[in-house]
Amino acid sequence: MMNASNKPRAIVVGGSLGGLFAANMLLRNGWDVEVFERVPDELAGRGAGIVTHPELFEAMAAAGIPLDASVGIDVLSRVTLAQDGEAVLENALPQTLTAWGKMYQVLRCAFPDSRYRCGGSVVSVESTETHASVTLADGTTHQADVIVAADGFRSTIRQHFLPDVHLQYAGYIAWRGLVDESALSDAAHAALFDKFAFCLPPHEQILGYPVAGHSNSTLVGERRYNFVWYRTSGDDDLKDLLRDESGKQFEGGIPPALIRRDVLDTMYKSAETLLAPQFAEVVKKAAQPLFQPIYDLEVPKMNFGRVALLGDAAFVARPHCGMGVTKAAGDALAIVEALARHATVEEALADYSERRCRFGASIVQHARHLGAYMQAQLKSEEERDMAELYRTPEAVMRETAVPVKF
Amino acid sequence: MQVVKLAHYSIRSFDLEKSSRFYERVLGFTPGYRPPFDFPGVWLYMGGDEKDFGTVHIIGIDPSNPEGLKKYLGDKEIPLTGTGTVDHIAFLVTGLVEFWDVFKAEGIAWRDRTVPSLGLHQVFIEDPSGVTIELNFPASEIDAVGSYASHASATVGEQP
């Protein structure tokens, strides 16, 4: 595979976290790498919180990315609040949390600007015996020895190779948002801020944790608190949530600024009546809440000749495990290792696919278990009651967003 | 270390719907909550067993999918009809660590599995007739020790 006179060439489609992991690692392993990102401006605006696991930091070290303490915020414990705001269960569980923007900044800074191309939307992809290529919307075609498709859960490249694989809606959504540390009342701050916190009213689940603030500051007073609130939403309800004021219907997700006023008002009202007052305050004060429909996605294979799927392009697990970014980083690491070990790109990617499909399928399955309670809320009243009997704050606190060994 | 109650039995069926209908119509069971295992099935409840994982479990076996069958059963040969289609019988029990000690002392092979979110740790053994017995422990018991491997390495120095 290594050409004596020239470096092997890689194209990474998708310049979000997964793509940047792969690009950084390939670059430091002697590859000539170029990243094609479709919508860079939209990326920078996303601010969701990210749970870290030890494997994520191992992958960052392998990618040669300088790390210091400012990458995340440490919490020491977990707490579950009752609807009246009293702590019902608390235990020690140290963890580092970060934010999408912070991770993006760290990974993006480690990758040369000249190799990060914006605005290139892939319209077709091809793999032959000698090379792989992508064609962009502007008509240009770009060749490489290997193409890494890190183009997210609605991957164009996956749809090209696996037209029959679809996202499976799980029957519930996650409202997410960030509130400035300084905006919180003393009471809410004291109850929540330095903790990974939960509240589990009937049929609902909300959790929250501190993340970096504006300009990615992790200094005390400048941080933000991130919430994730799971709520049941049947197919028809979801369709309604995804329609803006003008009547335009979105699929899979709606830009936060276009979420209808009445949808937000209903959500705020529910927060007031259902959630612990500290969480209700977080939800109410969040700058621009957004929601994501929860999906499962599994592929039977991740390699197509010289093209490999990576991260959410291949497997989407529900957010309960908090493994999305760690999984993408692990995929990137596995691709680079396989390419170094095998004589041909095709062999390397076949090996990569076998290992990471197993891992991806296990995570998706594990996350299904953790989300089964939310999914049961769409069923009969009897089944909802049963699901309630089986749900305990102990299990939720023990299993949410912790590393899983498969 | 105690068996608290006989909990459920689990049967394999080539026609999940037909089997489930039988238990519903003839015996009055109600299908209910079941974790999202990666094989098809139904949990049937009789009332009062809503927190004990139901009383009859049916595992759907697709005869046209030998791969899926093998994934679930391993290389075990299974009868197609008759009482031999009972996959396992389950007890609710407490005292995980003591049970492990007994299995070691008696030379009994076992397999551990934790079901996420349910608050359930399962141990599978076989009786002398080859009947699979599933022991269901509260998840807090496995939580306390981590895993058999970590428990064994932590207690190795304590052996006389």
TrEMBL record, chain B:
Residues 5-138 form the VOC domain. PROSITE patterns: VOC. Pfam families: Glyoxalase (PF00903). InterPro entries: Glyas_Bleomycin-R_OHBP_Dase, Glyas_Fos-R_dOase_dom, VOC_core. Signal peptide: none annotated. It comes from the Bacteria. This is Glyoxalase. It comes from Pseudomonas veronii.
